[in-house]
Amino acid sequence: MAPTKTGKKAGKTQPPAEKPVVPLETKAKAKKEVPAARESVVKPLRREGAQREVPKKRFQLGEFIANARQFFTGVWQELKKVHWPSRREVIIYTGVVLVVVTIVMLIIWIADSVYSQILRLIIK
Known about the structure:
Layout: H1 24-41, H2 61-80, H3 87-123
Membrane topology: Single-pass membrane protein
Function: Essential subunit of the Sec protein translocation channel SecYEG. Clamps together the 2 halves of SecY. May contact the channel plug during translocation.
GO molecular function: protein transmembrane transporter activity
């Protein structure tokens, strides 16, 4: 027999080595213990003893007024970009909506009437 690249003789297969049998309870305990080990490794981001002082933000009327003015200026600029429909366009669009709503209402009413008659025939 010729040796293979691994140095073992080809042709004869060796039975696989038996793995040690580990009871299922031991495996379950090992899985449960892993997160506890990870938690102990994680360190808090803050250093102990060092307290971070947050500067108190004081209300400043001038800054508030400047921000409000900037906000309303932006709102006015955006409102200038809006295209407002004319009276004629509003009347046309309203008519279209009313016609479509009426058509859908008729379709639902007819379907409801037909299904009601079918159910009455089935129940009798």
